[in-house]
Amino acid sequence: MKVAIVGAGAVGCLLAARLTRTPAGVTLIARARAAEAISHDGITMVTPLGRVSRVPVRVTDDALSAGTQDAVFLCVKAHALGGALDTLSSLMGPETAVVPMINGIPWWYPLGQPEPLESYRLKAVDPDGTLWRSIPSDRLVGAVTWVSVEADGVGRIRHVDDQRFVFGDPLGRRTAAVESVVELFGLAGFQARGSLDIRADIWTRLWGSLAFNPLSALTGATPGALCVDPGTRAVARTLMAEARAVAERLGITFTADIEARIAAAAGVGDFRTSMLQDMEAGKRLEVEAIVRSVAELGALVGVPTPTVETVAALVDMKARHRGSGTAGMAA
């Protein structure tokens, strides 16, 4: 099995380091500077138990040189997917599976859903429909990532907590592509499973991301601290309640309650969320996929989301005025 991982961020490096130890032929596709550093030094990974390992990986900045792949894992932020399309096209063959490892609501969410979703295109995550037109829907494998990992420089990561991944066909079918990906991740030592309702898994994961990513970016606090403080815990609870109302209107049934989900987030402790990491690094935040997509879906189905919209506006403002107080949002 030939596998390409597009993106050398924290999740991309984690997958490259772990999947390289399987029988699959793994290639990490990275920007030139990162590819050079990783080619020379490999990926340095600190495990949840504190062990440090250095893993040599095959890496290139030339996707064409990697050739046609059996599966491509898109490990870039949702707002960067459009910029990865040329790379993806260089890796695609007639049966290549495409696995977007993104946070939040994916652009393909309306696929095969009843109205009003079926004919709808999510403007928050695919404003001009480029992703919908460019990535064949029959190649998609939906993915939900339950892993806490931090970048510590180019090719250096700290795997903080959890190793769970969920994969599923967007149309709810049992497919060979999903089974192959689940098997591959199992061989890498991850806890991976297939799902016949990947959208329900997306909402369960999004519950925590929606609450704690923007609140951490606004306050600089970790989920552990946000869950302990009565004020921020209450805001998180309200955000999750609004999201639950939207999801339920779309036919999603939650198997856990809000307090249990908050308790799970508290258990992560001092982990810096991806949005907090991006805020501190001056990078663009995933507000559209994680926060604004929920408000957009709420408007579509007639469910008010005032707290979600307020938090999105506050995070946008903070991102625009971070640092010197006048700097714009970084790309």
Automatic annotation (TrEMBL):
Span of domain Ketopantoate reductase N-terminal: 3-169
InterPro entries named in the record: 6-PGluconate_DH-like_C_sf, 6PGD_dom2, ApbA, KPA_reductase, KPR-Related, KPR_N, NAD(P)-bd_dom_sf
Amino-acid biosynthesis is among the record's keywords: no
SUPFAM superfamilies cross-referenced by the UniProt entry: 6-phosphogluconate dehydrogenase C-terminal domain-like, NAD(P)-binding Rossmann-fold domains
Entry keyword annotation includes 4Fe-4S: no
Domain Ketopantoate reductase C-terminal intervals: 197-318
Signal peptide: none
Pathway involvement of the protein, from the record: Cofactor biosynthesis; (R)-pantothenate biosynthesis; (R)-pantoate from 3-methyl-2-oxobutanoate: step 2/2
A single GO molecular function term of this UniProt record: 2-dehydropantoate 2-reductase activity
Keywords associated with the record: NADP, Oxidoreductase, Pantothenate biosynthesis
A cellular component annotation (GO) from this entry: cytoplasm
Reactions this protein catalyses: (R)-pantoate + NADP(+) = 2-dehydropantoate + NADPH + H(+)
Gene Ontology BP terms: pantothenate biosynthetic process
Pfam families: ApbA, ApbA_C
Enzyme nomenclature, EC number: 1.1.1.169
Highest taxon listed in the record's lineage: Bacteria
Family: Belongs to the ketopantoate reductase family.
Function: Catalyzes the NADPH-dependent reduction of ketopantoate into pantoic acid.
Name of the protein described by the UniProt record: 2-dehydropantoate 2-reductase
Organism encoding this protein: Skermanella aerolata
